[in-house]
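Worked example 3 (structure in, sequence out).
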């Protein structure tokens, strides 16, 4: 292929990848929303467990002990519903890894595809059969400890404050599935820890392959939308060398400066929820693009 043909192919791959990731995130969000509805249905059992005085929750040791019973409910919910979603999520993550490998193979590069995909499986914590590994990333994600903590606090405060059953039900619904102003508990949690994992996995595979192939340049890919951060606006569509990224942590537009020493520009890019990604390119392609 000529340099111009390679550039066109890279551009088309980037558009396809961005579209694919957006589709995956939308599907994931839909499934998480459904998980929230199922979780609310399961949590309605709590009302049957609580001792009440008329229509008011009683502040009793028995009611507080129901927090332990709720933990068992959450364990069952993880086993019966969340883990099923996580296995599908794992397949999609590995699929993104395959797309990353395919990018290099389409450009005629020889890539150790099996090793890269095994590495991704290890990173997310699944075995060769797609089962979750205890203590791995997906297993910890599935425990939803932050969500569990919020639910425990809500039920505990409801007991201590002797809330009415109607107020308890309204608050539980707002917490679990959200309302017009806020997202539900699982959506918030997954958005923080999972929604941008597709791009992150791409970069983990990307940097490994680029290092093996000794590629020194990349295109900072991804379109600009209304809420694109200034950090990414300055870089989108441009060519950079790996060397040039070493001072990106000092960019005043990079968010979360308190942890800038842990920032890895080749993986973190514009940091959490960043929708941009890198396409590594040869010296020849980089030289041609820099002319344009």
């Amino acid at each position: 292929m000529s340099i111009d043909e390679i550039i066109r192919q890279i551009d088309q791959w980037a558009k396809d990848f961005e579209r694919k990731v957006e589709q995956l995130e939308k599907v994931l969000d839909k499934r998480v929303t459904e998980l929230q509805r199922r979780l609310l249905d399961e949590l309605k059992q709590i009302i049957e467990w609580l001792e009440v005085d008329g229509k008011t929750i009683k502040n009793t040791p028995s009611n507080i002990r129901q927090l332990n019973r709720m933990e068992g409910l959450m364990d069952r919910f993880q086993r019966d519903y969340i883990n099923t979603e996580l296995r599908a999520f794992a397949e999609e993550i590995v699929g993104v890894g395959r797309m990353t490998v395919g990018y290099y193979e389409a450009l005629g590069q020889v890539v150790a595809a099996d090793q890269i995909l095994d590495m991704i499986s290890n990173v997310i914590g699944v075995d060769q059969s797609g089962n979750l590994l205890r203590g791995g990333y997906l297993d910890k994600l599935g425990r939803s400890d932050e969500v569990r903590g919020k639910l425990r606090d809500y039920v505990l405060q409801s007991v201590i404050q002797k809330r009415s059953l109607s107020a308890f039900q309204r608050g539980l619904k707002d917490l679990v599935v959200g309302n017009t102003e806020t997202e539900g508990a699982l959506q918030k949690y997954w958005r923080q820890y999972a929604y941008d994992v597709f791009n992150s996995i791409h970069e983990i595979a990307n940097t490994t392959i680029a290092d093996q192939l000794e590629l020194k340049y990349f295109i900072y890919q991804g379109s600009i939308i209304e809420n694109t951060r200034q950090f990414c606006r300055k870089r989108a569509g441009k060519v950079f060398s790996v060397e040039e990224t070493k001072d990106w942590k000092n960019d005043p537009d990079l968010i979360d400066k308190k942890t800038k020493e842990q920032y890895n520009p080749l993986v973190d890019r514009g940091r959490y929820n960043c929708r941009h990604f890198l396409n590594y390119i040869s010296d020849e392609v980089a030289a041609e693009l820099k002319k344009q």
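Notes: The chain has a mean pLDDT of 95. Residues 176 and 218 are 42 Å apart (CA to CA).
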